[in-house]
Amino acid sequence: MLWFQGNSMQLAKHSFQRLLRNLSASKTALPVLTLFTKDPCPLCDEAKEVLEPYKNREVDITLPENSAWYDRYKFDIPVFHLNGQFLMMRRVDVSKLEKQLQKLEQQGAGGS
């Protein structure tokens, strides 16, 4: 697991940008990363800052229409789904995210 501080955060951003560029160039649909959050949540704020350039979707679990997500994740935020499937919780694990994005990239390359 990578903790985002200083150069590590920049390295993670660069690596993630490269993966998204490769996915985009392969004409594969870009993955959707969903962040489940609530306020206050310092870990969510950190995750949002790191992932801001790649923001696709954010779900505020405290809104009435998201009560099922609140019941499920109220003690685990931030929680991330990639293409609708659970990916990780509590901290951004760039290694795990990169592995999943690489899998998507390989699937896209195989299907072209």
TrEMBL record:
Task: List the keywords (alphabetical).
Answer: Electron transport, Transport
Q: Which InterPro entries does this one have?
A: Glutaredoxin-like, Glutaredoxin-like_YDR286C, Thioredoxin-like_sf
Entries under Pfam families matching the protein:
Glrx-like
**Superkingdom of the organism of origin:** Eukaryota
The protein in question is named Glutaredoxin-like protein
| Family per record | Belongs to the glutaredoxin family.
Record bears the keyword Electron transport: yes
